[in-house]
From TrEMBL, chain A:
Molecular-function GO term, any one: methylcrotonoyl-CoA carboxylase activity
Gene3D superfamilies xref list: 2-enoyl-CoA Hydratase, Chain A, domain 1
Organism: Ureibacillus yapensis
A GO cellular-component term linked to this record: methylcrotonoyl-CoA carboxylase complex
Domain CoA carboxyltransferase C-terminal: 261-494
Coiled-coil positions: none
Xref: PROSITE patterns: COA_CT_CTER, COA_CT_NTER
CoA carboxyltransferase N-terminal domain segment(s): 3-255
Tree of life domain: Bacteria
UniProt protein name: Acyl-CoA carboxylase subunit beta
Name of a matching Pfam family: Carboxyl_trans
GO BP term, example: L-leucine catabolic process
Automatic annotation (TrEMBL), chain B:
Domain of life: Bacteria
Residue stretches making up the Lipoyl-binding domain: 1-70
PROSITE patterns documented for this protein: BIOTINYL_LIPOYL
UniProt KW keywords: Biotin
Protein name stated in the entry: Acetyl-CoA carboxylase biotin carboxyl carrier protein subunit
InterPro entries found in the cross-reference section: Biotin_Carboxyl_Carrier/Decarb, Biotin_lipoyl, Single_hybrid_motif
Cross-referenced Gene3D superfamilies: 2.40.50.100
Pfam families, per the entry: Biotin_lipoyl
Presence of the UniProt keyword Ribosomal protein in the record: no
Length: 512, 70
């Protein structure tokens, strides 16, 4: 039996742990629309935190209950997941030696259990006063990132960013599969605005330099911009549902649903004029189960759409060109975005559906200087390596290396389907006629030029007609646009048993 | 005041608004031609068109100013 003083001390400690930091920090958080870490966990899990370890970490210090981080296990939709969550009411969520040790241990636990790990980040970074204990050593903060890399592709790793993720800590989101940022509060930066002013003389505010909106639309370090913490948590709960617990399992089927009802058919959505824009989201809605779309990087490189959805209850990853934005042309950023998404889906057995309407990769001085070739290579590399069911749909056109990047026939898709009216070629009729006949056109009298050009274009169109390509066995099937949903259902069902090892080697040399 | 900028390099194919006209947020104001595609460029915010900066047929680079809206 513990004596009375031990018992009362124990109760006192437990109360400290459940309350977190000083009242003034709770008030400050509330003013910013930030929830207390334990309230976040109540929202995240079906029935709150089920198991917590290391709650008494650093309890003797007096003002550092749990050492500023909650680690434990809970359930999302009945599935076990691990979590680490910074407490920004305790020294601004900064990391001491025990904070780091707790994070490392929950990573080890998630690996042993083979379950997803969520990082709820809200931290000012390292406690400089504790640096020898928490920074450089074998089980210092570096080990957190090393573990993240090791866990990558083994279990889903999800980052919800509610506050700052500063300096070295900014690498937690960088190594996660997906990063959800809360607008106005979340930020990521290596050096704070104060440090930037001191070291490089730049005067800038935090939101401009490393705010959620910037990272979700410009840098691409953030994937989802949430308006509130509740919205971020809801996204994470839905996101998990597309994934298995670990790489050894496949995602679970959900109850099939029909696509959302609409007056517009796919045939109505795709304009007859090859060069006119249309909204690819409308087409996606026609082929997926109602309300099943969960997009990644909506605000970044919007000329390509990447997101999870369900078709007949089955989890799928969609990669679609968006002709409404930059003509659906592939750029350096869109290629990066697609490369990461493809790699993520492939790691967790999520079949890939490519919806191609792509004029090719962008050309010109500006993009060459940005290294569009090596960025494009990343997408083609990831897509080639992917061994999940790969379905390539040529919605309207696939020109040049655009055909390759969108899992064209040479890249071992399980099927390459073209919609009637689609075109596949090195380049479109306008560019091709110009390339082949430029001298001849110039030599013709002005009044004959237009007729000559139109005749050559029509010849060319016949040459690249989909039925010609199907007749040559270049594409596997031609279907009417309104048959697409049914075709995808049948194909996904047929390819369920696919098991493939891409090739044997230590690892490929990835373009970066 | 906001400036509608070109999202990519190309030529100005069609200008859809006149100076003095009211436009809504999200409304297409210019169509560029690039990579043989029509690229609609929408106004991010609504307002009155103060100035059309480019002419049809002009070559423009990414981020060049197209239309000024007040």
């Amino acid at each position: 039996m513990a004596d009375i003083s031990t018992e009362s001390k124990h109760q006192e400690y437990k109360e400290m742990i459940s309350k977190g930091g000083h009242e003034k920090y709770h008030t400050k958080n509330k003013e910013q629309g930030k929830l207390f870490v334990r309230d976040r966990l109540k929202l995240l899990f079906d029935e709150g935190l089920q198991v917590e370890d290391g709650a008494f970490a650093n309890i003797l210090a007096g003002d550092l209950p749990a050492d500023g981080v909650v680690t434990g296990i809970g359930k999302i939709h009945g599935r076990t997941v691990c979590v680490m969550a910074n407490d920004s009411t305790i020294k601004a969520g900064s990391w001491g030696a025990r904070t780091v040790e707790k994070i490392i241990r929950i990573q080890e636990t998630a690996e042993k259990l083979g379950v997803p790990l969520l990082y709820l980040v809200d931290s000012a970074g390292a406690r400089i006063t504790d640096q020898i204990e928490m920074f450089p050593g074998r089980r210092g903060a570096g080990r957190i990132f090393y573990n993240q890399v090791k866990l990558s592709g083994r279990i889903p790793q999800i980052c919800l960013l509610f506050g700052p993720s500063a300096a070295g800590g900014a690498y937690i989101p960088a190594f996660c599969d997906v990063v959800v940022m809360v607008e106005g509060n979340a930020s990521m930066y290596l050096g704070s605005p104060r440090m930037a002013e001191m070291v490089i003389g730049e005067k800038v505010d935090l939101e401009t330099m490393g705010g959620a909106k910037m990272h979700c639309s410009v840098s691409g370090c953030g994937d989802v911009l949430a308006r509130t913490e509740e919205e971020a948590i809801t996204y994470a709960r839905q996101y998990i549902s597309y994934f298995p617990d670990n790489f050894k399992n496949k995602p679970k089927m959900e109850a099939p649903k029909l696509p959302a009802p609409s007056e517009k058919s796919i045939e109505d959505i795709i304009p007859s004029n090859q060069n006119a824009a249309f909204n690819m989201y409308d087409l996606i809605d026609r082929i997926i189960d109602e309300d099943s779309f969960s997009e990644v990087k909506r605000l970044f490189a919007a000329e390509i759409i990447t997101g999870f959805a369900r078709i007949n209850g089955q989890s799928v990853g969609i990669i679609a060109n968006q002709p409404r934005v930059k003509g659906g042309v592939l750029f350096h950023d869109s290629a990066d975005k697609a490369a990461k998404f493809i790699s993520l889906c492939d790691a967790f057995h999520i079949p890939l559906i490519f919806l191609a309407d792509v004029p090719g990769f962008m050309i010109g001085t500006q993009v060459e200087r940005l290294g569009i070739i090596r960025h494009g290579a990343k997408m083609i590399f990831a897509m080639s390596e992917a061994t999940v069911p790969k379905i390539s749909v040529i919605v309207r056109k696939a020109y040049g290396a655009g055909l390759y990047a969108m899992a064209g026939p040479a890249f071992e898709p399980d099927v390459c389907i073209a919609l009637t009216g689609a075109q596949i070629a090195v380049m479109g009729p306008e560019a091709a006629v110009n390339a082949v006949y430029a001298n001849k056109i110039a030599a013709l009298p002005k009044e004959e030029q237009a007729t000559f050009i139109e005749e050559r274009r029509n010849e060319y169109r016949k040459e690249i007609d989909v039925h010609r390509l199907a007749s040559e066995l270049i594409i596997d099937d031609v279907i009417e646009p309104n048959e697409l949903r049914a075709a995808l259902e049948n194909r996904l069902d047929a390819y369920k048993s696919k098991e493939l090892i891409f090739t044997e080697r230590k690892h490929g040399v990835r373009p970066v | 005041m906001t400036i509608v900028k070109a999202s990519m390099a190309g030529t100005v194919w069609k200008i859809l608004v006149n100076e003095g006209e009211e436009v809504a947020a999200g409304q297409d104001v210019v169509i560029l031609e690039s990579m043989k595609m029509e690229i609609p460029i929408a106004a991010e915010e609504g307002g009155t068109v103060k100035r059309v900066i480019v002419a049809e047929g002009d070559f423009i680079n990414v981020d060049d100013n197209l239309v000024e809206i007040e």
